[in-house]
Amino acid sequence: MELQNHLFNTIAQVISNARQTAYRNVNSIMLRMYWEIGRLIVEDEQQGSYKAQYGKASLKNLAGQLGLEFGKGFDERNLNNMRAYYRSFPIWNAVRTELSWTHYRLISRVEEEQQRLQYMLLCIDNQWDTRTLQRNIQTQYLNRTLAPTSTHPAPPQFIKDPYIFEFLNLPSDTRHTEGSIESALINHLREFLMEMGKGFAFVARQQHIVTDTADFYIDLVFYNYYLKCFVLVDLKTGKLGHADIGQMDMYVRMYNDLKKQEDDNPTIGIILCTEKDETIVKYSVLAENEYLFASKYRLYLPKEEELVQLIEQDRIKFELDHEED
């Protein structure tokens, strides 16, 4: 029986490997075909053969001809997608064939070239499916970090403002407690880790810290293996106050003393609140401690204009606070 199981497992692995190889090959060929079609359409535009009238009508006629010959996969909408795909990735060698055509259709809608490349790499590094990619583009994942990315990881690159927790699906007509939000985040841990960003691993909820004089409970503890440090998260359902900042400062110092290992970097503390008083932020330890952060969070996806405004306000505020650094 053991020999039979071994034979089955070996054959199953051969079949699985062959199917994966076939899928990769087919996917690569399809991506190249769509890229070539997009290239031909764009080059035809540039050569001016339809200079005056080239546009929807011409593409519609082309789609009609291709549809009769090859089926509905080459309708006007798909041809537009191929055109956008080529314009987004005009160099074939820049295309990573690990991703699907749907990934590239979504990425091609991103306006900035650098962000398109970043989303492509994030999809590969983090194995984002197309639903995750779509959600991250919609919530402006890259724009919500406090500082531009660089070659050297630093805490601000890993902190967002605001955080978007629409995936919790909490009823909008209910007042939620910190405990209920925390429980919902744990129940949606995969989505929560994705929203936290790259390199986060969950460590504990309500971690109990004992000192000589008191007991303390930290809401959420993570470890970021890029920053090589612990990240403490404290949830607040109201406006940020002095006591919240002082508490997190104490937690971070305590964690550095009691939990941090010699090869770990200093612990980061993030206070998540629904509102921030910028005066309190400016004149508190947050202004001088590079390892303490306060970020807003939203339980529901804001309208695009509101989200853009929130991001821009916090980016300007962060740059003003750090312009002398």
Automatic annotation (TrEMBL):
Species this chain originates from: Chitinophaga oryziterrae
Transmembrane segments: none
GO molecular function: nucleic acid binding
Pfam families: DUF1016_N (PF17761), YhcG_C (PF06250)
UniProt domain YhcG PDDEXK nuclease: residue ranges: 157-306
Protein name according to UniProt: DUF1016 family protein
Source taxon at top rank: Bacteria
Residue span, YhcG N-terminal domain: 11-144
Database matches in InterPro entries: PD-DEXK-like_domain, tRNA_endonuc-like_dom_sf, YhcG_C, YhcG_N
